[in-house]
Specification:
Order of helices and strands: EEEHHEEHHEEEHHH
Helix content: 40-55%
Largest sheet: 3 strands, mixed
Strand content: 15-25%
Shape: elongated
Number of helices: 7
Strand order of the largest sheet: 1-3-2
Radius of gyration: 21 Å
Length: 193
C-alpha cells in the first residue's frame, strides 16, 4: 500500500480505521501484533484506499506533481492537466474558470434577491471564503472557491450579497439566507469541513 499507516494501540476489542488526507489511522487492540494488524489492512486495502480518497476529496487538496487538481468539487481529468504544471498556472486557470461561473451565479442571485454589489473581486485569501464591505458595495471572494462544488460557491456569494442588506450575522440575516437557500446549513457544514 502506497500510503503511510499510523498505528495506535489502545484498550479496545476491535480494529478501527479512519483516514486523513495523508495517512490511514489505525487503532488496534494492545494485544494485537503489528503483523496481524498489517494483515487486516492488506485484506481490506481496496476499501481503505477509497476511505483515503474520500478524505482527500472532502478537503479538495491539489497535488500538482501527481496530476490531482480539483475544479468545482471534481478531480480534473484529461488534457487540461498537461498544461497545469505549476501553482501559478493553476491559479490563472482557477481565475478564468471561476470568472465564468461567478457571472452566472451573481446574475441568478441578483435576480432573486434584488441585491446588487457595485463590484466583486477574486483573490487569494488565507482564512475566509469571502468578505463584504456593505458601505462600498464591494465583495471579495477566495480564489480557492474554484476547488469547491458549485452549491458551496453559490452559498458564499449569497452570504456576501445578503451582507449588503444585513451587515452582521443577525436573525434577519440568517432568515434571509434560508429564504433563498433552504439547505444552507447543510451546505455551510460541508464548506467548513
Amino acid at each position: 500500500m502506497d500510503i503511510e499507516i499510523k498505528i495506535t494501540k489502545k484498550n479496545i476489542k476491535n480494529i478501527r480505521v479512519s483516514a486523513s488526507t495523508e495517512a490511514l489511522l489505525v487503532s488496534a487492540p494492545k494485544y494485537m501484533s503489528k503483523k496481524a494488524i498489517m494483515k487486516v489492512v492488506e485484506e481490506n486495502e481496496e476499501e481503505l484506499l477509497k476511505l483515503v480518497e474520500r478524505a482527500r476529496s472532502k478537503k479538495y487538496i491539489n497535488n500538482i506533481e501527481k496530476g490531482e487538481i480539483y475544479l468545482f468539487g471534481e478531480l480534473l481529468k484529461g488534457d487540461t492537466l498537461n498544461y497545469l504544471t505549476d501553482e501559478l498556472k493553476v491559479e490563472n486557470f482557477y481565475r478564468e474558470e471561476l470568472k465564468k461561473v461567478l457571472e452566472n451565479i451573481f446574475e441568478e442571485l441578483r435576480e432573486i434577491t434584488g441585491l446588487k454589489e457595485k463590484s466583486y473581486t477574486v483573490r487569494k485569501m488565507k482564512s475566509r471564503w469571502g468578505t463584504c464591505y456593505p458601505e462600498r458595495g464591494l465583495i471579495n471572494l477566495n480564489l480557492n472557491l474554484a476547488k469547491r462544488p458549485i452549491d458551496e460557491i453559490k452559498l458564499v456569494v449569497l452570504h456576501e450579497l445578503i451582507h449588503l442588506k444585513h451587515p452582521n450575522h443577525s436573525k434577519d440575516f440568517y432568515s434571509e439566507l434560508g429564504r433563498y437557500m433552504g439547505n444552507y446549513k447543510e451546505v455551510q457544514r460541508r464548506l467548513k469541513e
